[in-house]
Amino acid sequence: MNPDSKIFVTGHRGMVGSAIVRRLQAGGYSNIVTRTRTELDLLDQSAVHTFFRDEKPDYVFVAAAKVGGIQANNTFRADFLYQNLLIEANLIHGAHLADVDRLMFLGSSCIYPRDCNQPIKEEYLLTGSLEPTNEPYAIAKIAGVKLTESYNRQYGRKYVSVMPTNLYGPNDNYDLASSHVLPALLRKAHEAHTRGDQEMVVWGSGAPRREFLHVDDLADGCVFLLERDYDGPLLNVGTGADVTIGELAEIVMDVVGFRGRIVYDRSKPDGTPRKLLDVSRLAALGWRARTPLRAGIRAAYEAAPFFE
Ligand code: GFB
Questions:
Q1: CB 237 within 8 Å of CB 279
Q2: Cα(222)–Cα(231) distance, rounded to whole angstroms?
């Protein structure tokens, strides 16, 4: 890629897409193309194909997706499956039809079997059953991985799939019903602290382990791969370390300055017990995450819409 290559970033208003745009701008890329949902509906096949035919970007980031935390995934199962299948199929096939040779598809660590060995190597894909709370989303993301692999095999494209672990950072979703755990705990701790509460509710048992990657690190890893013309197999992106949800809650409370008690709401699902990614494939290429968890959480807190 050169600095004036035309790079189409989908989902640029979301947490991942906006981080990729920031990182590209910082790297001197000046020809970044974005479209809002009103300008281009990614569920509309013919609109997406026309867009590609007219714009002919050099590179596409598939960062647009319907995403959410455990409860949203478990509740809006049809929407997560249908919309993600359509978005990725329209973008990947549309890019191919317009002869766009380079593309990066972003998935999620929930594509791997629920009970696979830890840390999770890329080759564990499709070796076991998925976590039920996010099976529809995971199936859609697995289809995306298979689309990139298949267009490469059949048509010689250089489409890459990247699987980030749980992400957090600026432009995260702080709606408690649909968010992921980290933004939810930041908001709950902030509100509890502001109200002077004695306790804060954390869903599930607190025992599941999760790995958290700052979205700016993910964006940096993506641009690192773009700049090295990486066109190899599926790659995990993570930090290589995880914490329990209970430990995460303690760190968040500490960052916010809330000194109350944690109450576990065991009527809410735990989800997968652990999903720590093996990041050695990406590390061997020379990239690693840089943001320490506590510092990243502090930065996310200060960027949160309710921070004053
Ligand atoms: O982040 P999260 O919603 O998604 O939840 P997953 C992670 C863990 O945190 C679960 C617990 O064990 C939750 O029960 N948790 C505790 C909370 N308190 C809260 C809370 O207030 N809100 C939320 N949301 N969780 C999603 C998948 O899985 O992660 C997606 O559903 C995707 O497919 C995404 O892979 C990255 O890590 O369980």
A1: yes
A2: 12
In which residue are the tokens 């039809």 written? 97
pLDDT in tens, 190-221: 999 999 999 999 999 999 999 999 999 999 99
Binned at pLDDT 50, 70 and 90, residue 1 comes out as confident
Tell me the CB-side half-sphere exposure of residue 126, using CA atoms within 13 A: 7
Q: Which of 16, 67, 70 to mutate to test the pocket of ligand 1 (most atoms within 8 A of CB)?
A: 70
Distance CA 121, CA 38 (A): 39
Helix 45-55 with 77-97: angle, nearest 10 deg: 30
Say how many residues make up the chain.
Answer: 308
| Angstrom distance (rounded) from CA 45 to CA 87 | 9
Cβ 23 under 6 angstroms from ligand 1: no
- How many angstroms separate the CA atoms of 227 and 219, rounded? 12
Pairing of strands 243-244, 209-210: antiparallel
In angstroms, the CA 157 to CA 148 distance is 8
Cα–Cα dist 28/227, whole Å: 12
Q: How far apart are CA 282 and CA 287, in angstroms?
A: 6
> Which pLDDT belongs to residue 242?
98
Secondary structure in 3-state letters for 195-246: HCCCEEEEECCCCCEECEEEHHHHHHHHHHHHHCCCCCCCEEECCCCCEEHH
Write down the pTM of the prediction.
Answer: 0.98
Q: 136 φ, ψ to 5°?
A: -60, -45
Half-sphere exposure (Cβ direction) of 21: Cα atoms closer than 13 Å: 20
Residue type, 128: G
User: What letter would DSSP give residue 129?
Assistant: P
Q: In whole angstroms, give the CA distance from residue 182 to residue 184.
A: 5
- Ligand 1 atom nearest the C-alpha of 202 is 18
Bond into 119 cis (ω within 30)? yes
The number of the ligand 1 atom at minimal distance from the alpha carbon of 141 is 33
